[in-house]
Design goal:
With 336 residues, this protein is mainly alpha-helical. Helix content is 72%, strand content 3%. α1 packs across α4, α4 runs antiparallel to α5 and α8 packs antiparallel against α9.
C-alpha cells in the first residue's frame, strides 16, 4: 500500500499506482512546458504558482477516472494539464479580486508584480489551456467552455450576493458548485472521456466530481477556521480577515438571526468589524472554533462527500473505484 498525492491516498495496486504516478509526473512536465514563453518575464510569472506546488487534485481525478477506460490513451495527460492550467489561471484572478498577499505559501503574483500582470498572466494560462484543448476535439472544447461559463457565473454570483429573499447558505452552495464543482466535474469527465470509458461511466464520474468538488471547497472553509497550519499555504483565518463570508460564517449569521442569542449577535458584530486588528481577529477565530456553526459546516462537507461516494455505485468494483471512494473520506478528514 503506497500513498499517492498530497492527500496520502492509499493505492493498493501496483499497476494503478504506476499509472497514477507516471501520469502525474507527465502532467507536471506538461504544466512547465505549457507555461514557457519566448519572453522570460512571462515564463517567470506563469510558472510562479506551478513551481509553488499544490494539491494537483484535479489531475489526480483525471488519472483515476481514466482507469475506467484506457489510462494510457494519448488525450489523458493533456486533459489533466488543461484542467490544472484553468484552475491556476483562476487563482491568479481570484488573488487580484481578493487582494490576497500569499498563495500556496509564496507571495501572490499580484503582490509581487501588481494586479495588471497577475490578470494578464491568468489570461495567458487560459490561452495555453485552450491551445492544448483544441487538440482534444470539438466536444472537449464545448465541455470546457460550458464549465468555464459556470465558473465565471459562480464568481459573479459571489460578487453580486444573494438575491432578495434567497437563503444566503443556498446561494453560497450555488456559488461553490459553479466556482469549484464545475471544474472538478470536468476533471472526472475528461479523464473518462479521453480514456474511452463510455457514456455511462463518463456521466457517473462527472456527477461524482461535481459533488466532490463542493465537498473539497467546504472542507477548505472549515480548515480556514479550524486548522493551525492551513494546507493551502494560507494563514488560518485568512478568509475572515479578507471579509469573505464562507460557510461557517453564513451558518453563524443564520443562527444569530433565527435564535437571537446574545453571544451569537456579539460574534457577528465582531466579524463585521475591522479584522485587520490582530487581537480582534484572534478572538473571532477562537470563538468560531468552538461554535456550533463550524460543526454545521462540517456536516455539510460530509453530506456532499457522501453524495459523491454514492454516485460511484454503478462503477465496476476494483482498485480505482476504491481510490475514488477513499478520496471522499480524505476530503472529510481534512475538515475533521
Amino acid at each position: 500500500m503506497t500513498a499517492v498525492g498530497p492527500f496520502g491516498l492509499s493505492v493498493r495496486d501496483q499497476a494503478l499506482e504506476a499509472d497514477v504516478q507516471t501520469g502525474l509526473a507527465a502532467v507536471e512536465a506538461g504544466l512547465l512546458d505549457a507555461t514557457k514563453s519566448d519572453v522570460p518575464f512571462i515564463t517567470e510569472a506563469a510558472q510562479h504558482l506551478v513551481r509553488a506546488g499544490g494539491k494537483r487534485f484535479r489531475p489526480l481525478l483525471v488519472m483515476l477516472a481514466a482507469q475506467f477506460g484506457d489510462p494510457h490513451a494519448p488525450g489523458v495527460v493533456p486533459a489533466a494539464v488543461v484542467v490544472e492550467l484553468t484552475h491556476l489561471a483562476t487563482l491568479y484572478h481570484d488573488d487580484v479580486m481578493d487582494e490576497a498577499l500569499v498563495r500556496r505559501g509564496v507571495e501572490s503574483a499580484n503582490t509581487r508584480w501588481g494586479n495588471s500582470v497577475a490578470v494578464l498572466t491568468g489570461d495567458f494560462l487560459f490561452a495555453r489551456a485552450s491551445h492544448i484543448l483544441a487538440d482534444l476535439g470539438p466536444e472537449a472544447v464545448r465541455i470546457q467552455a460550458e464549465a468555464f461559463e459556470r465558473l465565471v457565473t459562480g464568481q459573479i454570483l459571489e460578487t453580486a450576493g444573494p438575491r432578495e429573499g434567497q437563503d444566503p447558505v443556498e446561494h453560497y452552495l450555488d456559488v461553490i458548485a459553479g466556482k469549484t464543482g464545475s471544474l472538478v466535474a470536468v476533471s472526472g469527465r475528461f479523464g473518462a472521456m479521453t480514456a474511452g470509458a463510455g457514456e455511462r461511466f463518463t456521466e457517473v464520474l462527472t456527477q461524482y466530481g461535481e459533488r466532490l468538488g463542493v465537498a473539497f471547497q467546504l472542507a477548505d472553509d472549515v480548515l480556514d477556521i479550524a486548522s493551525d497550519s492551513h494546507e493551502s499555504g494560507k494563514t488560518p483565518g485568512t478568509d475572515l480577515r479578507e471579509g469573505i463570508a464562507t460557510l461557517p460564517v453564513l451558518h453563524l449569521r443564520a443562527l444569530a438571526e433565527q435564535h437571537g442569542r446574545a453571544e451569537d449577535v456579539e460574534l457577528v458584530a465582531l466579524l463585521e468589524g475591522d479584522l485587520a486588528d490582530d487581537a480582534r481577529h484572534a478572538e473571532v477565530l477562537r470563538r468560531l472554533r468552538v461554535h456550533p456553526a463550524l460543526e454545521l459546516a462540517r456536516r455539510d462537507t460530509v453530506r456532499y462527500a457522501q453524495e459523491a461516494r454514492a454516485m460511484l455505485a454503478p462503477l465496476p468494483e476494483g482498485y480505482a473505484k476504491a481510490a475514488l471512494a477513499e478520496l471522499c473520506d480524505l476530503v472529510v478528514h481534512r475538515a475533521g
